[in-house]
Amino acid sequence: MNYSQTIEYLFSTTPSFQQVGADAYKPGLERIRDFCHYLGDPQKGYLTIHVAGTNGKGSVSHMLASVLQHAGYRVGLFTSPHLRDFRERMRVNGKMITEREVVDFVARHKAKMRELDLSFFEMTTAMAFDFFATSEVEVAVIETGLGGRLDATNIITPEVSVVTNIGLEHTDLLGDTIEKVAFEKAGIIKAGVPIVLGEASEQYNAVFEQRAAELDSRVIYAEQEVSVVEHKRERDHQRMVLDRVRDAHRFEFVMDLAGEYQYHNVITAAAAADYLDTHTQITIPRRAFVEGMARVAATTSLAGRWQQLSDKPYIVCDTGHNAHGIKYIAEELHRISGEYDQQICIFGFAKEKNIDDILPLLPRNAYYIFTQASSPRSLPAGVLASKAAAFGLEGEVRSTVAAALTRAREMATERDMIFIGGSNFVVAEIV
To answer: Which of 13, 215, 385, 392 could form a disulfide with 370 if both were Cys (CB 3.0 to 4.6 A apart)?
Structure first.
């Protein structure tokens, strides 16, 4: 099989969550453990950092990978989902796995994959672990796929675990309360390995504290370790000034990620990097941290996080797709609304999203173009428009993302802003 045939084989024989949603989810760690043992347990050949959370885990993972790379390490980065190319999921020092490496891995191991009845994510996780081992990485940043406790990535024993925040998402799989979701995320805590909690909350702090106590671990609250002294956003970058709380040591940088909500992720990544530098064999000099945080997108090819696509009109996209993430996006849109004559928002969602929790968050003074991506998981644009109207959101329908963007460009002047988001699928069709 060539590369395109291999990818078609993977998506057809091991359905992905990205394609079919919850039907692709296979909880449990037995299959991934057995498969990785068959591969020689490649995940044990390098140091790891484990990152979970409802929102921001991808950004934090990319930040840490960038910092580690600037510190001189050979770094693996595993994230999901991909936007355009399956290979985006696994990189070494910013470079994607090659098409040949994907083809060869599947050809060598597809019989065992079938024997164990691996899920798409289990197969992908194992491929990443093996790719990092053969690439001789020194440290790998591993993002969970869904949840934590039963996530395929949870067979690693990291140097530090990180949870960015907790919100209600995938309630059919993770639980219908914040506490239940937190319990699943806290499942990545390992004996004696601290966890950095990015955004503390009275709703779930106790869940992490209890699990950490059971495993002789501890919770490091990022906001108690790092404070933001200055935060100034520009269109395509933002200036950050951080103080390390324990000694008031100051870090200043201009980062190439624009979304103001990123300051939450910056604090989380900074606290995790500080722990790694002070309590593990990993060394992160001050210069490496500053340069790595300044060049996250450039170093790791991070896309889809308040990504600017055009200047006049100002066009940005963002992959935030749940109530917790959309809240940050809505705050950003409100914050900058006075800079533009009009905001035109293109939105499409996956059909399993609880949009009744999302739509009230969106600004009512914007004009909306409701659309749907080509994925079978997409909510029909007409259904979305009808629901949006009930929340006072005015606009029109376009049946494809491309048509929606064309219509928005027709309407917009150089003094307007166009936002595109609501779903990874929507963003993937325009980046």
So the answer is: 385
